[in-house]
């Protein structure tokens, strides 16, 4: 896992390169926890993340950030990570609320192409 953090004012972008699983979860959480207190928007860039298991759900829905009011969004979702998020939201929309995480929510019933 390669992690790059870029901060521009109150916005931080964490670019994760590699698979997200329970082995890579601690350094990803550490990157988020190390953000300065002025960060109010955290963008997870998963452009180079081809696979994510339930650890990704923990990362995105139970964030560890520098402040309690930090808005978390995600970009660059490939087919498998998007499928996981949509499946989790379908199973329990109250817990896995995609409206706060994805700036452009896929329409209801959307399914990415088969893997």
UniProtKB/TrEMBL annotation:
Highest taxon of source: Bacteria
Domain STAS, residue spans: 1-60
SUPFAM superfamilies hit by this protein: SpoIIaa-like
Matches recorded under PROSITE patterns: STAS (PS50801)
Entry-linked InterPro entries: STAS_dom (IPR002645), STAS_dom_sf (IPR036513)
Name of the protein described by the UniProt record: ABC-type transporter Mla MlaB component
